[in-house]
Specification:
With 179 residues, the protein is mainly alpha-helical. It has helices spanning 8-22, 27-30, 40-58, 63-77, 88-105, 113-122, 125-139, 145-164, 167-178.
Length: 179
């Protein structure tokens, strides 16, 4: 698709995908987690698939950022999610900016699983740093750096990368519906 302003259809699709991805945040309200953020096992792959699908369906720079903005706002209003609610929107939006910049710099060939996987691996990293900063500053949670790198960065990157591997299949299946 061509670059330019978002159409009404684009905004509707990004809002739909963003809202759907935020629904995974509800898992923290219903599934007790022994560690904070463990809901990411469900939410991160689903969110990654929906984010990258929205970016590819719309095909314009800024699509991932807007999708993540919608997801962050809806996630803030839902029960569950990170304990510092106001950090959700900036964290999600930064992930969208990373995806938009990545696709702007490296235009992937259609159905390139490797490039989708790289995008899935990296888009959570700045957000994880924001979450770690907010948890330590506002909640006093000071974890050792090794635990942070393992529990947040490595696991979130792995889950994002695994979710991204399914994006070409999702795009192929929804192509007849979305056109």
């Amino acid at each position: 698709m061509s670059e330019g302003l978002f159409t009404t259809r684009d905004i509707a699709l990004m809002s739909l995908f963003g809202s759907m991805s935020s629904l995974a945040t509800l898992t923290t309200a219903f599934i007790p987690a022994p560690l904070p953020g463990l809901y990411g096992v469900i939410a991160i792959p689903i969110g990654t698939i929906l984010l990258l699908t929205a970016r590819e369906v719309v095909g314009k720079t800024g699509a991932a950022t807007f999708t993540q903005l919608v997801s962050g706002v809806v996630s803030t209003l839902l029960p569950g999610g990170p304990p510092v609610k106001w950090i959700v929107v900036p964290t999600w939006v930064v992930g969208g900016v990373v995806v938009d910049l990545f696709f702007r710099a490296a235009r992937p060939s259609p159905n390139s699983r490797v490039l989708y996987m790289i995008a899935g691996l990296i888009y959570n990293l700045p957000g994880d740093l924001l979450l770690y900063w907010s948890f330590s500053l506002f909640l006093g949670w000071t974890w050792p750096l090794f635990f942070f790198l393992y529990a947040f960065v490595a696991i979130h990157a792995l889950l994002g990368g695994l979710g991204a591997l399914f994006v070409p299949d999702v795009l192929e299946r929804i192509k007849p519906v979305i056109g």
